Amino acid sequence: MSAPCNVVVLISGSGSNLQALLDSQDEKNAARIRAVVSNREEAFGLQRAQAAGIATHLVRHKDFADREAFDAALMAIIDKHQPDLVVLAGFMRILTPGFVRHYQGRLLNIHPSLLPKYKGLDTHRRALEAGDTEHGCSVHFVTEELDGGPVAIQAYLSVQPGETLESLTSRVHAAEHIIYPLAVRWFAEGRLRLAEQGAMLDGNPLPGTGHLVRI
């Protein structure tokens, strides 16, 4: 059996996507979460990791003079675990170009919209206010452009008549918990890669929307 894929997960909050990743780990899955790092000590995801026997680290951004100093400290901790993949799971910090370049091709993020639509925050409200009939979430490789890296996989769902912000948020969260573990597993198996032409699955270029999953 090939060596496992070492994964480090960065979080800032409750860690529901982290939990989905933890739940997906089994003997058939090459991905192995080695550490969870948070910039907030109150992040419940730290407790999830500790309950699963995963190493945890706290790097508080407010302890550093600027983003560069924070990211340097973050990289030093991450690199101790020799990661093959770094996963952003609700990590609410904009990363410096140096950080992104350091992990180029092995840095994934999940965003709650069908990218390139609705980069940034408040995506569900913006989709509802625009009258969109479809919404969803995207797993993408991280580049220096905010929420602009090549998309690996998207989950599409239909916006229901009378959909509320709360119901849409909940449904997209559930979709995130399906596609993020799938993308991480693909990466761990060597199927998902970032190449010059963009995201590749099984050696074939993915379209701009990535692999599509309808929920």
Automatic annotation (TrEMBL):
It catalyses: N(1)-(5-phospho-beta-D-ribosyl)glycinamide + (6R)-10-formyltetrahydrofolate = N(2)-formyl-N(1)-(5-phospho-beta-D-ribosyl)glycinamide + (6S)-5,6,7,8-tetrahydrofolate + H(+). Its EC number is 2.1.2.2. (6R)-10-formyltetrahydrofolate binds at residues 67, 92-95, 109. Catalyzes the transfer of a formyl group from 10-formyltetrahydrofolate to 5-phospho-ribosyl-glycinamide (GAR), producing 5-phospho-ribosyl-N-formylglycinamide (FGAR) and tetrahydrofolate. It comes from the Bacteria. Keywords: Purine biosynthesis, Transferase. Residues 6-184 form the Formyl transferase N-terminal domain. Pfam families: Formyl_trans_N. The record marks 147 as: Raises pKa of active site His. It comes from Stutzerimonas marianensis. N(1)-(5-phospho-beta-D-ribosyl)glycinamide binds at residues 15-17. Pathway: Purine metabolism; IMP biosynthesis via de novo pathway; N(2)-formyl-N(1)-(5-phospho-D-ribosyl)glycinamide from N(1)-(5-phospho-D-ribosyl)glycinamide (10-formyl THF route): step 1/1. One of its GO terms (biological process) is 'de novo' IMP biosynthetic process. This is Phosphoribosylglycinamide formyltransferase. The active site is at residue 111. Gene3D superfamilies: Formyl transferase, N-terminal domain (3.40.50.170). Belongs to the GART family. One of its GO terms (cellular component) is cytosol. Coiled coil: none annotated. GO terms for molecular function: phosphoribosylglycinamide formyltransferase activity.
